[in-house]
Amino acid sequence: MILAFVALMLAALPGLPASSADGASKLKAKTWTVKVGAQSRSGAVQTMAYGPKKVSINAGDTVHWVSNAMEPHTVSFINAAHPAVPFDFTIAYMTEATPQATISKPGQFRSSGIIAPEPDAVFPNAVKTYDLTFLKPGKYHYLCYLHGKAMSAVVVVRKAGTPYPHTQAEYNVMAKRASNSDIEHGLNLWANALGASDSHHVFVGASDMRALVNRFIPGSVVVKVGESVTFDLGANGFPVPHTITFGPPPQNPLAPAGDPTNYQGGTLSSGVLVAAPFSPGPHTFTVTFTKAGTYPYICLLHGGMGMVGQVTVQ
């Protein structure tokens, strides 16, 4: 009885609260931001990385992914029923968001759907952000369906109340350093492709497992009537889809259209091309120009990023 009375008196003292505010704050759930992709100032170079690639959080915390580049991506916690096979627009689970806002163990399938700055004709349901709350400890690996294992990351979830190893500001610095390095790498890919190109040989982008260059290289060439230009995906070490499209877009923007052997204007498109060895082909698109003029063209998948070119025929 005396012990119970003493306990009540101590709890009532203002200097000795039963539970401190500091202790309560340690258990309060937090939200952590991870950036999805990064890009050069012009948008020409796109990186394939989450920023940062690893975050350590506590059970009950939320991760907030936000689009940070024009290149579309996904945040996808995959399983055997939803594997990371080569990206296909027609596979619904690769492009559609799952409805759950929480995840409680590794192996549960969760996906953001397409994350991009804005919806477009190819991905009309794209979203800018994605939030997921982690309920139980574990290592939760995820990747981007469009870019496969080249773009993967992990969320490490510990018990609630565990001290955090890094602040959000520290994670931001890590992400910025990594993205700057990847962008510089992409600029080197661009320079190498430009050095191997000429007026009759244009590279359709350049890429590897770190960065994408979404530009025609070079972007403008001059040829003579009767000469040809070969558009080549050979500078890509990663399966990035592109089109070479002159004139008004075809009714089916992903399918070939027109006659490339005798081009004098109007609609002409390669359809979607992917570099070898990721696609059986074709891996090049050769156009013979039989009339003088200036012929602008575009990649229908990356035109919004500035992937446009021009052939001047004299």
Automatic annotation (TrEMBL):
Signal peptide segment: 1-20
Pfam families: Copper-bind (PF00127)
Keyword Signal: yes
Blue (type 1) copper domain residues: 45-157, 216-314
A Gene Ontology molecular function term of the record: electron transfer activity
InterPro entries with a match to the protein in the record: BlueCu_1 (IPR000923), Cupredoxin (IPR008972), ET_Amicyanin (IPR052721)
Keywords associated with the record: Copper, Metal-binding, Signal
Protein name: Blue (type 1) copper domain-containing protein
